[in-house]
């Protein structure tokens, strides 16, 4: 709940800044109109960057995978002993 | 497998950073540079700064809708 308030505040601040820029026309109109698209593009770039970074140092744990495979084998053996059919249908 | 993932991640980060740098230069800094400066040779006219992102967004949205529709059709066929 707190996060969304933060995001909304940021959006409001950016909108207020943009409207102010439009009203005062400090810089030419045609350039001010580009700003929202600039923000959308930078948001997309941020998302892509986060995905790339997450993919780059994706945590893998090979030891845990080995242990898990061993566990699965053990469970299969146990179930077979008890007479449960676990063949993939 | 691990190395390929890492390479893809690096590529994604690199692409996003380069797009961000180029677009920032194009939209934020270029209006303050003189019109007859040589830097303007490396950038398209200002209209394209709107046209390209909007068309890319529309294309992405179309692709997403087509993909979702395709998946829905496929799942319905499976159920029947």
Automatic annotation (TrEMBL), chain A:
Statement: the UniProt record of this protein carries the keyword Transferase = no
Q: Name one GO cellular component term.
A: endoplasmic reticulum membrane
- Which parts of the chain span the membrane according to its record? 7-27, 33-58
Q: What does the UniProt keyword field contain?
A: Endoplasmic reticulum, Membrane, Transmembrane, Transmembrane helix
Q: Describe which pathway this protein belongs to, using the record's wording.
A: Protein modification; protein glycosylation
> Topology relative to the membrane, per the entry?
Multi-pass membrane protein
Q: Which Pfam families match?
A: DPM3 (PF08285)
What the entry lists under InterPro entries is as follows:
DPM3
Where primarily located? endoplasmic reticulum
> Which subcellular locations apply to this protein?
Endoplasmic reticulum membrane
* Family assignment from sequence similarity: Belongs to the DPM3 family.
PANTHER family from the xrefs? DOLICHOL-PHOSPHATE MANNOSYLTRANSFERASE SUBUNIT 3
The subunit field of the Swiss-Prot or TrEMBL record says: Component of the dolichol-phosphate mannose (DPM) synthase complex.
Q: What does this protein do?
A: Stabilizer subunit of the dolichol-phosphate mannose (DPM) synthase complex; tethers catalytic subunit to the ER.
> What is the protein name given in its UniProt record?
Dolichol-phosphate mannosyltransferase subunit 3
Question: Which organism does this sequence originate in?
Answer: Flemingia macrophylla
UniProtKB/TrEMBL annotation, chain B:
Q: List, alphabetically, the Pfam families matched.
A: DPM2 (PF07297)
Q: In which pathway does it act?
A: Protein modification; protein glycosylation
Write out the GO MF terms. Answer: enzyme regulator activity
- What name has this protein been given in UniProt? Dolichol phosphate-mannose biosynthesis regulatory protein
Sorted alphabetically, the Gene Ontology cellular component annotations on this record are: endoplasmic reticulum membrane
- Function recorded in the entry: Regulatory subunit of the dolichol-phosphate mannose (DPM) synthase complex; essential for the ER localization.
Lineage of the source organism? Eukaryota, Viridiplantae, Streptophyta, Embryophyta, Tracheophyta
Q: Which UniProt keywords apply?
A: Endoplasmic reticulum, Membrane, Transmembrane, Transmembrane helix
According to its UniProt entry, this protein's organism is Flemingia macrophylla
Q: Per the UniProt record, which residue ranges are transmembrane? A: 7-29, 49-73
């Amino acid at each position: 709940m707190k996060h969304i308030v933060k995001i909304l505040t940021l959006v409001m601040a950016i909108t207020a800044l943009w409207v102010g820029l439009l009203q005062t026309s400090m810089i030419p109109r045609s350039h001010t109109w580009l700003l929202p698209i600039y923000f959308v593009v930078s948001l997309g770039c941020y998302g892509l960057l986060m995905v790339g970074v997450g993919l780059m140092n994706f945590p893998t744990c090979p030891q845990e995978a080995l242990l898990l495979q061993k566990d699965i084998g053990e469970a299969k053996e146990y179930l077979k002993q008890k007479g449960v059919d676990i063949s993939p249908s | 497998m691990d190395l390929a993932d890492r390479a893809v991640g690096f590529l994604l980060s690199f692409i996003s950073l380069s797009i961000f740098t180029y677009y920032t230069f194009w939209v934020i800094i270029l209006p303050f540079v003189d019109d007859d400066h040589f830097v303007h040779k490396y950038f398209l006219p200002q209209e394209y700064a709107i046209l390209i992102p909007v068309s890319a967004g529309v294309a992405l949205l179309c692709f997403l809708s087509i993909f979702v529709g395709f998946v829905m059709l496929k799942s319905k066929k499976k159920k029947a």
